[in-house]
Every structure is written in C-alpha cells, then in structure tokens.
Amino acid sequence: MAWIALFFAGLLEVVWAYFMKLSDGFTRPGPAIATFVFMFLSFGLLAWAMRQLPLGTSYMIWTGIGAVGAFIVGVVLLGESASPMRLAAAALIVAGISLMKLATP
C-alpha cells in the first residue's frame, strides 16, 4: 500500500508543479490555490508512505516521478523542448528510480 501511496504522491507533485506554472508566480489566485491543495495532498501521501518505506527511497522516487512527470507535462502541454539531451536526462532519472525500487526490500 505504501508504494501505491508513493506513486500517487509523485503524480500529485506533477499536478501541483503544473498549477504552479499556471499561477504565473502566484499572481493568479485559482492556479495558486490549486497548487497549495495538490501540494498538501502530495506531501500527505509522501508522509504516509514514509511510515513504511525508507526516507531515501521514498524521497528519491517521489522527486523522480515529479521531475519526469513535470518534464512530460512541459513537453506535451506547454510546448517545451524534447531535445535528445533532455530525453536522455529523463531516461537517466527513470533508470535511477528503477534501480532504487529494485534495491529496496
């Protein structure tokens, strides 16, 4: 159950990062409020998962899902660059997440 919570915490990190971008530096109230709501939910699930999972594993996987997910959202929804170097960097993050998951009992 902790792994599922951690996965959803990572997805919610992507959501709050997206709304933070839409908030335009917290100058738009709707997206700014959404940022804090999804941030609270993401942190809550992360905290719950950390009750059963190691700190390093939890935090690395949470930030990794958030980083790669935000990269994908940026490319797909915001028209950001998907250069080979950026794709390789995202692949390295996914590889790191996978190794960390395999190394955790």
Automatic annotation (TrEMBL):
Which keywords label this protein? Cell membrane, Membrane, Transmembrane, Transmembrane helix, Transport
Read off the InterPro entries from this record: EmrE-like, Small_drug/metabolite_transptr, Small_multidrug_res
What membrane topology is annotated for this entry? Multi-pass membrane protein
Task: Provide the primary localization.
Answer: membrane
Question: Is the Transport keyword given for this protein?
Answer: yes
Any Pfam family the entry gives: Multi_Drug_Res
Q: Which SUPFAM superfamilies does the UniProt record give?
A: Multidrug resistance efflux transporter EmrE
Transmembrane spans: 33-50, 59-79, 85-103
Q: Where found in the cell? A: Cell membrane
Q: Looking at the record's lineage, which domain of life comes first?
A: Bacteria
User: Does the record bear 4Fe-4S in its keywords?
Assistant: no
Identify its protein family. Belongs to the drug/metabolite transporter (DMT) superfamily. Small multidrug resistance (SMR) (TC 2.A.7.1) family. Gdx/SugE subfamily.
Name this polypeptide is given: Guanidinium exporter
Q: Which gene underlies this protein?
A: sugE
